[in-house]
Structure of Drab5:
Amino acid sequence: MNPIKTYQFKVVLIGESDVGKTCLVLRLTKGIFQSLHVTTIGSSFYTKTFSFEEDEEVKMEIWDTAGQERYNSLTRMYFRGAVGAICVYDITNKNTFVEAKKRVEDLKNESPDSIVLLIGNKIDLESQREVKDEEAAQYAEENGFLFYETSAVDGAYVEESFKALASLFRHYYNNPNFIQEYTTHIKFNEDEKNQQKKKCC
């Protein structure tokens, strides 16, 4: 049996307050949904390991950063050394999508080669949607970002979205120029969206 190759990467979780960043990472790492929790001040640290094939795994070090504007300068400190970033917005709040774009700009100023996963959270509240998935998908595609819509409440697409990012990290490890080359774009197809709407509404 071949020894397991472990790739370890730092990831920052960014976005406005109340978009569900901590809820997403708790769903991912502990399999729970916790609606009431203390607002993140500074950052919190989590890890998640994804297995690929028989002899490869990616250990993701996730830094969950504060969403309040007054902590922006502190949040930027965590961008250094980050190979990837997960930028989260709330599909029921248009302003969080606008602010998410600003957070990505800040990230790219500090860490221009970071791989970005854009997540529209709270698809369990589809009837309250303010951000069209087509709009977010276009933004992601134009900038070469991964894109998923998720629900921390029922776990929809949480594992899949983070694992897609981890998969890109494997390519990065074997080819440091990969970040400049990739133009991956992932979104729901119509069947998946319809099934999700039936599931969550």
